[in-house]
Write a structure and sequence with these properties.
Structural class: alpha/beta
Radius of gyration: 15 Å
């Protein structure tokens, strides 16, 4: 199995709606650890934003799962716009994971502009395509789309919901990891 993963970033300071509070990082980390141990994926592919992506990449690395990252634009720019702009100390983890992943399954930088309104939607497609390529490479037939979120879209243009719907159209199995303590 190959896991393609997408999900919520850590909530911004003062967020009106809780989708992934910083206080829930440990819960999500443990849920991902249990899921990865039970499924033993050949590889994991996602982006590298603070929250779901970095937690999954960290847990995957601790379990010796091959990891691949897909970034919409340059790694340094991505770090400033999607990693260090939220509460928590994500910068060092991002740098370490980028270094480690570059030695594993590589980091794919798509080269979009940060001003491209569809950069993240295009990144979703690229993550799923990369998962298909990794499934071929490791000769596995199952690709699972892991969705790490509070369980519902935040609006009609929700990027995580887009990832889920796109994966469903590809007939990938969907697994959800919930970011809010029930």
């Amino acid at each position: 199995m190959v896991i393609a993963l997408a999900g919520r970033r850590i909530d911004a300071s003062g967020a009106e709606v809780n989708r992934f509070p910083l206080a829930n990082v440990h819960k999500v980390k443990e849920d991902l650890r249990k899921y990865f141990i039970s499924t033993r994926p050949a590889a994991l592919v996602c982006s590298g934003a603070c929250g779901a992506d970095l937690i999954a990449l960290e847990v995957g690395g601790s379990l010796n799962i091959r990891r691949s990252m897909v970034l919409p634009f340059d790694a340094a720019l991505f770090k400033s716009t999607s990693v260090t702009d939220r509460p928590g100390d994500w910068g060092e983890l991002y740098d370490k994971i980028c270094q480690d992943v570059a030695d594993e399954e590589k980091i794919q930088v798509l080269g979009y502009s940060e001003h491209d309104d569809e950069a993240y939607l295009k990144t979703n497609f690229a993550i799923l395509k990369r998962a298909e390529a990794l499934a071929d490479k490791y000769e596995v037939s199952e690709i699972v789309a892991a969705i790490v979120w509070e369980g519902r879209p935040k609006d009609k243009d929700d990027i995580t919901e887009h990832f889920k719907k796109t994966a469903e159209k590809k007939n990938f199995k969907i697994e959800e990891i919930i970011t809010i303590v029930q």
